[in-house]
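worker-3 :: picked Aspartate carbamoyltransferase regulatory chain
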Amino acid sequence: MEDRLIVRKIKDGTVIDHIPAGRALDVLKILGISGKEGMTVALVMNVESRKLGRKDIVKIENRFLKPEEVDKIALIAPTATINIVRDYEVVEKRRVVVPDEIVGILKCVNPLCISNSPREPVVPRIAVVSRQPLKLRCTYCDEEFGEEALSQLVSQ
Ligand code: CTP
Ligand code: ZN
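worker-3 :: tokens ->
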């Protein structure tokens, strides 16, 4: 594949590969990257992939991801691979994993849910009922919802 590289290899940083086509900008939003921070970022969108048909890739130099960021990426890009690059070599490659329960990163969509009460700080807990299609259920109020709830991760 070397001769087909659209963007050069990076020296140190993170390559998020196998992102479903069209989701690269959502991945950047999750990471809080607007382009004004000064770090070098490469976006590749809608390139051919043997596994996915089409895919996006995000390469970020000198940036490594926090577990919470990886969990969020898993939700909006469940096919993604996170590659950690040091001195041009991929030293770690991990598939993202959608956990059985999502703790603290997604709010329940039910405004009356105890986990949304402004009076007591409750860490939201949401069970993953199905992965494809994504079906979620709040552990507190049993409200069920789907992919539409993920908009809260990428808006602001
Ligand atoms: N990559 C990069 N800079 C490097 C090393 C790798 O930008 N110094 C990128 C590659 O272009 C690729 C991804 O990181 O998009 C993973 O690299 P590699 O494991 O070498 O590629 P594949 O074997 O094709 O990965 P996979 O099996 O996960 O598809
Ligand atoms: Zn709830």
